[in-house]
Structure formats: C-alpha cells, structure tokens
Amino acid sequence: MNYSTKVMDHFANPRNVGEIENADGIGEVGNATCGDIMKIFLKVQDDIITDIKFKTFGCGAAIATSSMATEMVKGKSIDDALTLTNKAVVEALGGLPPAKVHCSVLAEEAIKTAIADYYRRNGIEHDLTIGCDGCCNACGHADKHLHNQ
Predict the structure, then answer these.
(1) pTM score, two decimals?
(2) Burial per residue of 64-73, b for 16 or more beta-carbon CB atoms within 10 angstroms, e otherwise
(3) Does the residue 51 lie in any domain?
(4) How does the average pLDDT of the chain come out, rounded?
(5) Is residue 123 part of a domain?
(6) What's the number of domains the chain is made of?
(7) Could you tell me if 128 and 115 are in contact, meaning their C-beta atoms sit under 8 angstroms apart?
(8) Which of 58, 104, 120, 147 could cysteine-pair with 36, CB 3.0–4.6 Å?
(9) 149 lies in a domain?
(10) Which one of 48-62, 92-106, 129-143 scores highest in mean pLDDT?
(11) Is the pLDDT of residue 137 over 70?
(12) Domain encompassing residue 13
C-alpha cells in the first residue's frame, strides 16, 4: 500500500500519544473486522479541549488517523470538535488507501464517544448519535448505512 508522507510522519512520530489521568471524557471504539482499537482521553475547560491523548492498538493508518484527529481538535471548542469528519482526517493526511479509510472513521467515532462521555459525566443533555455511517465499507455493509456525503 502507498501511504502519503503525512501518514508516514504521523505513524512514525505520532502526536498526543498517552493517557490523561482524571480525564473529563474517555472514548473507546474498535473495529472487529480489522482488530483496531482506539481510546481517546479528553481534558475540557470552559468548553475547550485543552488536552487530548490517544492509545491505539492497530495498523499504521490507525495510529496516523488517531494522531491527526487529535491534532485537529486540540484547542478547539467541543462544538468544533463535533464537526470533525473522517473525510477531513483523510484529507489532512493527504489521503488513505481505500482499504484503510475505516481507520479514519474510528478516529472520528472515538473523539465523539469521548465527548459523549464528557457530556454524560457532567449531566449535559445531548443528542449525539455515534455509529458507522457505512462510508468506508470496511464491514461490507455500506448499503445498510447512510453515507456521510
């Protein structure tokens, strides 16, 4: 597989790796098909993501998408972070092979799951719906999901 220079850089030198003690929100997602697991830790102050870390068990693309996604939302408001899409992560990395696009979906879902956990912990009402939109077809079920166009 051919990976962009940015993918290789984020794989070899991932940003924001680790765990945050006493995190304000934690999100963990996985893909049973490929075995990738992503865990995101958030620190939030005044509705701003002041720190974000990740632990990813997976391939190089999974590590690179975790790294890039955390870079894209660090220092942003919760509302801005919720607008992050897997497509934006892929674009920021200079593209991914089609077989690896599901990694960007996991990165998006992990961040949104961590935000949902932050909301839950703080008693904040929300209508976050987190789940596969079928855009990567990694599971073979693209026809059963709405596409995020």
Answers:
(1) 0.84
(2) bbbbbbbbbb
(3) yes
(4) 86
(5) yes
(6) 1
(7) yes
(8) 58
(9) no
(10) 48-62
(11) no
(12) 5-144
* CATH number of the domain that residue 38 is part of: 3.90.1010.10
What are the tokens at 38?
């992503």
Task: Kindly give, in sequence order, each residue whose CB lies less than 8 Å from that of residue 125, ignoring residues fewer than 6 positions away.
Answer: 119
What one-character-per-residue DSSP string does 65-111 give? HHHHHHHHHTTSBHHHHHT--HHHHHHHTT---GGGHHHHHHHHHHH
Point out the residues that are catalytic: 34, 103
Please count the helices (runs of H) and the strands (runs of E) in the chain.
5, 3
Cβ atoms < 10 Å from Cβ of 22 = 6
Sheet holding 48-57, edge to edge: 25-30, 37-45, 48-57
**Which residue has tokens 């956990």?**
117
Q: Is residue 95 part of a domain?
A: yes
Q: What percent of the chain has pLDDT over 90?
A: 70
The first and second tokens of residue 118, run together, are 């932050």
Helices 5-12 & 60-73 angle (0-180, nearest 10): 90
Nearest to 47 by CA among 122, 144, 105: 122
In tens, the pLDDT along 68-119 reads 999 999 999 999 999 999 999 999 999 999 888 888 889 999 999 999 999 9
